[in-house]
Amino acid sequence: MRQRGQDIAIGLLQLLIAAERPITVAEALARLGAPRATLHRVARIFAARGIVDCRRRGWLAFGPVGLALAARREALLRAEDQRRLAPRPRPIHRARGAGCAPSPRAAATQWSEAPLGRRPRFRIGFSNADMNNLWRVALVHSVEYGAVKYRSLARSLMVKHAEGCAERQARDIGDLLDKGVDGLIVSAHRAPALAAAFAEAARRGVPVVMVDRGDENAPHASFVTCDDGVIGRVTAIWLAEKLEGRGDVLLLPGLQAAAPARARLSAALQILRDFPQICILDICWSDWRQDLGRAIVEAALARGGKIDGVWCDSGLQAVGSLKAFIAAERRIPPHTGGDLNLAYKLAIRHGAPLAAVDYPPAMGLKAVETLLDFLRGRSVAKRVDVPTEIVVTRGHATTSVRPDLWADQHVRWDLPDDLILASGLGPSYDPRRFRVNYVGTRYNRSAAHPSERVDGR
Amino acid sequence: MADEIMAETAGVALIGDLLAHLAAGGDANAASFAKQVGAARSTAYQAIEKLERAGFVERDARGSLAPGANAARLGLASLRLAALLSAAEALLPALRNDADATASLVSVAKGTEIVLMRRAASWDAREGAGKELEAAIAETARLRLRLRPRANEAERRAAKFSLEQTAEALRRALADAADLRERRAGGA
Predict the structure, then answer these.
(1) Per-residue confidence (pLDDT) for residue A87, from 0 to 100
(2) Are residues A34 and A55 both part of a single domain?
(3) Is the pLDDT of residue A116 over 80?
(4) Based on the domain organization, do A219 and A366 belong to the same domain?
(5) Which of A82, A99, A124 is the C-terminal boundary of a domain?
(6) Residue A95 counted as domain residue
(7) How large is the average pLDDT for residues A319-338?
(8) Cys-Cys link to A275, which of A44, A140, A141, A240 (CB 3.0-4.6 A)?
(9) Number of domains making up chain A
(10) Residue A72 and residue A78: Cα distance in Å, rounded?
């Protein structure tokens, strides 16, 4: 009897929410199939507590408690949001009326409706595409940091690296599902090849948050990334303006198999098409490797050709190019590509003009937050773009591209060359000394370490 | 029969007490709440679980109770804005990040303004108010962006673009819910 009364009480609240207006007692009786006496008792009890308002005869309206509950939830979510909010140095400044300023980005307009929340703590699985460069080390560190920062919500974290093999990544995801993870974070090597794995996760009710690389058509709760189009466009505009619209440029995009690299290149090419006197000498995929970037530029220099600018989508390969110019004792032309501490150090030390839009590994932490929110029953944006900054070496701003930070404000002379900036891990983050302790790791060892294997040197 | 009625009344009162307690800002877990209202712990647990399954209550890892999404929807439903809850909770932080501005959802019903949701930009507590942009979501709801004091024209344009896109998404959420209600009413 007690149970039935409670069911009717909850049913009445649900009815009011669905109707969004006061309802008649007759309507409530018909919809709930409740005995009249029970409904009256429920209404009287709720009215005494301000949950419903029965003052108008034959009607059930909203009491003041509903708005107070909404305000209380909002206060809790607002406090949580403020705790997470990372300070940003300055907004992106673009020149007034600049003809080729990047167009405004599309805002997030879709969201994933969370199923009813479950009670924490959750087991998280992270399937990482590969570990072949330093940026990916920082991404793993960022995810691990998230698992520790939110240890009151995350019971454990399991990390698997697919070493750049889509089949292996599909197996990794299956393995994580079999181990009973509550939610998955996936940085996909080749998202279409993971369709079956994503479908299996959906079948088991395990939400997937994609990070860095993914497929917006696959079933997923959210895709946490950074706008690759902006990275490609802003750096290409800067390079073209720095060269005053004419010159021979070499394009060194990252990994051909990775969607972000293709998106950045495509955006850069679109911009460069507007500068007919800029000649693209070659487009060479560098796999985001320093050694490959250096070999490509050394070969180009050996051919004796003129290189007026080098466009890179990341400092991972830009460092190789900068080193090739330094070794050849040639004047370093304008370069693009940041992320890596060494890229900024070399550019400043050798007076090379450089512009970059860092691709923030902090998206790993954001992916953890998004997944935990979804698991707790909170709706999340279908796409989350992690904020980033435009960084330019001092004195090299152009008409359209003005920096949020000068490179000398961004560089960390006190930290190692292989530090990836914008990790969101705080000012003292050092990838070589990073220690982390969570259920799923042993002896405080991270699942990723910047070894020679990933340096690409 | 009288015992059954008493048990039913006590069960419903427990639910009412819990919702009123949470609305008043009361911090509790199941055990302390049971003690406070003089109910058996198992009885309180059962009621809380029922409310949790229905989305009216959330519990964190330590068992602390908080209003769930449906509890907030009950409040928004009184303003005819219940359908906005999920969309606004998901999209307001994204709008704030895109525009680097403080984003708010405001109810303007009956001449009274109520800030239903607010996601503040990281500079908001330090710097003064800049220009405000507004988009109508419904007759009684507005989406607002408060820009940084020295925001330039390009930033204002970009912020307005993001604001309009998010407002359109929220309007769509309301329209979809209205359609659903109409279909249900037709079906009934």
Answers:
(1) 62
(2) yes
(3) no
(4) yes
(5) A82
(6) no
(7) 95
(8) A240
(9) 3
(10) 10
**Residue A409 in tokens:** 């404000």
Q: A3: pLDDT confidence band, cut at 50, 70 and 90? A: low
Give this complex's ipTM.
Answer: 0.95
d(CA A66, CA A19): 14
Chain A contact present for B124, CB below 8 A: no
Looking up residue A129, the CATH number of its domain turns out to be: 3.40.50.2300
Give contacts of B107 with chain A, Cβ < 8 Å: none
Single out the residue of B55, B166, B25, B64 nearest to residue A18, CA to CA: B55
Please report whether residue A241 resides in a domain.
yes
Kind of pairing between the strands at A380-381 and A111-112: antiparallel
pLDDT at position A451, please?
67
Distance, in Å, from the CA atom of A157 to the CA atom of B96, rounded to the nearest integer, reads 30
A420-441 burial by CB neighbour count: b if 16+ within 10 A, else e?
A: bbbbbbeeebebeebebebebb
CB-nearest to B55 from A41, A74, A377 is A377
pLDDT at A105 over 70: no
Do A123 and A156 touch, CB atoms closer than 8 A? yes
Tell me the β-bridge partners of B141: B107, B138
Question: A307 is in which domain, residue-wise?
Answer: 228-357
Indicate whether A321 and A380 sit together in one domain. no
CATH label of the domain that carries residue A54: 1.10.10.10
Residue B152 CB coordination number (10 Å):
15
Per-residue pLDDT band at A180 (split at 50, 70, 90): very high
Q: Name the E strands within B34-183.
A: 57-59, 65-67, 102-107, 114-119, 132-138, 141-146
Residues 42-101 of B with CB under 8 A from A: 43, 46-47, 50-56, 58-62, 66-83, 85-87, 89-91, 93-95, 97-98, 100
Statement: residue B18 has pLDDT above 70: yes
Taking only residues 330 to 359 of chain A, the set having a beta carbon closer than 8 angstroms to any beta carbon of chain B reads: none
Same domain, A268 and A311: yes
Per-residue pLDDT, A91 = 45
- Alpha-carbon span A72 to B72, nearest angstrom: 8
Task: Report yes or no: B37 at the A interface, CB cutoff 8 Å.
Answer: no
Residue with more model confidence, A175 or A258: A175
- Cβ distance of B97 and A4 shorter than 8 Å: no
- Is A402 among the domain residues? no
Residues A156 and A58 reside in one and the same domain:
no
Q: How confident is the model at residue A89 (pLDDT cuts 50, 70, 90)?
A: low
SS3 B46: helix
Residues of chain A positioned with their CB less than 8 A from the CB of B72: 69-70, 73-74
- Gap between the Cα atoms of A456 and A13, Å rounded: 61
- Work out whether strand A52-53 and strand A122-128 pair parallel, antiparallel, or are unpaired: unpaired
Q: Are residues A282 and A189 in the same domain?
A: no
Does the CB of A6 have a partner CB in chain B at under 8 Å? yes
The answer on pLDDT for B45 being more than 80 is: yes
Same domain flag for A216 and A249: no
Whether pLDDT at A424 is above 90? no
**A234 & A340 share domain:** yes
